[in-house]
Amino acid sequence: SSNSHSPSPPSSSNAFSLVSSEQDNPSTSGCSSEQSAKAKTQKELFKTLKELKMHFPPEKRSKGKSSTVNTLKYALRCVRQVKANEEYYQMLMINDSQPPGFDVSSYTIEEINSITSEYTLKNTDIFAVAVSLITGKIVYISDQASSILNCKQEVFHNAKFVEFLTPQDVSVFYSFTTPYRLPSWSMCTGAESSPTECMQEKSFFCRISGGKEREGDLQYYPFRMTPYLMKVQDAELGEEQFCCLLLAERVHSGYEAPRIPPDKRIFTTTHTPNCVFQDVDERAVPLLGYLPQDLIGTPVLLNLHPSDRPLMLAVHRKILQYAGQPFDHSSIRFCTRNGEYITIDTSWSSFVNPWSRKVSFVIGRHKVRMGPVNEDVFAAPAFHGGKIMDSDIQEISEQIHRLLLQVCTHPFSLQPIHNMGSSGYGSHGSNGSHDTAEETGKAKPSRTFQEICKGVHMLKNQDSQVCLSPQTPLLPTQMMIRRPQRMACECLKIQTQARRRHASAHTHTHTHTHTHTHSVGY
To answer: Is this prediction's pTM over 0.90?
Structure first.
């Protein structure tokens, strides 16, 4: 009997039998119908496992760890993460009180439908959804959502919004919808606000699905999500609850109609000295098919054509040589989400830390020269194995990292410090005085940190490249469209320290000159 055998792990057939017995009721119509039901369940099980393996991290997939057990464990961790996020939200909303002076207006479902129709009726790719910050359930969703997501409106009833997101985007959704970081809807619907300004708030990207398509697969569509905070009056419960109102706009491939004009197919990226993506411009989404979270934290070389990866070593040698000054380089081939390559013309710059004289991060500006053959960059790749970390990626990345550990000695790296008036850092031969530069008229007026930030903000809104006069040096901060906040704080700290040094040096020089003049007079 089975009791006489020692315990052993269940085989795949036994495991399937367990799943089958849990999902299928015993058939009374004969053996053939029962076998047919089991075969259908088995096919669905294998299909689900295959889809789960597609979401397995590339670094683990390359090490041969993408077994069925490890894949299921990874899926279980994702489920626990979602559950933990939900519990965190509930604790946050229960324990935290509303900040004083925080204006959050209350709306009924009818009022939400009326105010959001201004956006949904003008654009057939936009739908509005209000999600409870207490339960995570959908409180309101516009009728347009069902046609955009190719599903029935009933699927949203009493459902949690995160259930319609692809698993890897759930954490992104939670991080961008922290309640008290959201702008109030009433603030952007005031008399001085316009619908365009309302849509320019902090946005993020997620993939949403309305359910299974004709072939039985989940079809996810990319959306640009713009979140707002409001209170919604619940007619059934007779009370108000905090909700996140989301304006979701579907993103289409930039190579399909209506196409992005060739001269506008530009995006920017930043990466660390060890060649890991740090930030990706949102303009890259319709051009590459990736959402920002797909690339951030991944190796840059992983997305390049294998033959073009050695070019990046030459690029970073030039980055070290130019030390913060922008330059153009040869084109490279970048892999889009559908597995095809596009050709991009690249320009590069960097931010050099004035104190350590080392490159802190690298900025790239890319313009698409040649698009993919398959214009739908959001399509699933033909090869489902995912990208694999080749040995040359690790080797070249390490060479680049060692290269950028060197100190920049090029005169270009010294110029910004001289312009900011930091005594002792202007040049190797500086004596701390700027009298000579002022007399000869060679000193160039320095830009304030506020002016630089204002220029970057204007560039982002105009969606255009930086164009300065030949007499004005192009700073790394002016090349950036969406730099992380910590870099802005670093620049502000550097600017403040430089001003203090300049004030101290100027006072010392003025006192020395004044004393010398009086001594000569006597």
So the answer is: no
Host H or E run for residue 208: strand 204-208
Q: Which residues pair with 366 in a beta bridge?
A: 267, 346
Q: What angle do CA 349, 351, 357 make, to 5 degrees?
A: 120
Compute the distance between CA of residue 453 and CA of residue 26 in angstroms, rounded to an integer: 68
CA distance 37 to 327: 63
Alpha-helix residue ranges (DSSP H) falling in 348-444: 391-404, 415-419, 435-440
Q: Decide if 285 contacts 260 (C-beta within 8 A).
A: no
- Cβ atoms of 476 and 452 within 8 Å: the answer is no
pLDDT greater at residue 434 or residue 309: 309
The confidence score (pLDDT) of residue 442 equals 43
225 CB-contact burial (10 Å; exposed 0-12 / middle 13-18 / buried 19+): buried
Q: What is the mean pLDDT of residues 275-304?
A: 96
The predicted pLDDT at position 99 comes to: 46
Contacts 24+ apart (CB under 8 A), 437-443: 443/419
Reference 138, options 157, 152, 113; nearest CA is: 157
- Model confidence at 317, pLDDT cuts 50, 70, 90, reads very high
Q: Give, in degrees to the nearest 5, the angle at Cα 129 between 192 and 152.
A: 145
The structure tokens listed for 59 are 């670094």
The DSSP element (H or E) to which 250 belongs, if any, is: strand 239-250
Q: What is the sign, positive or negative, of the torsion defined by CA atoms of 149, 155, 158, 159?
A: negative
pLDDT band for 384, please (50, 70, 90 cuts).
Answer: low
pLDDT of 182 reads: 87
At 73 the pLDDT is: 78
State how beta strands 359-370 and 266-271 pair.
Answer: antiparallel
**Burial classification of residue 269, based on how many CB atoms lie within 10 Å of its CB (0-12 exposed, 13-18 middle, 19 or more buried):** buried
332 CB neighbour count, 10 Å cutoff:
22
Name the residue with higher pLDDT: 422 or 198: 198
Q: Over the stretch 327-375, which tens digit does the pLDDT of each residue have?
A: 999 899 999 999 999 999 999 999 999 999 999 999 999 999 999 999 9
User: Is the Cβ–Cβ distance between 354 and 425 less than 8 Å?
Assistant: yes
Q: What is the pLDDT of residues 82-106, one digit of tens each?
A: 766 665 555 555 554 454 445 688 8
Give per-residue burial for 346-377: e unless 16+ CB within 10 Å, then b: bbbbbbbebeebbbbbbbbbbbbeebbeeebb
Task: Tell me what pLDDT residue 67 has.
Answer: 76
* 333 backbone dihedrals φ, ψ, rounded to 5°: -105, 125
Residue 72 amino acid letter: L
Q: Max Cα separation, the chain?
A: 122
3-state helix/strand/coil string of 367-395: EEEECCCCCCCCCCCCCCCCCCCCHHHHH
Q: 167 φ, ψ to 5°?
A: -55, -40
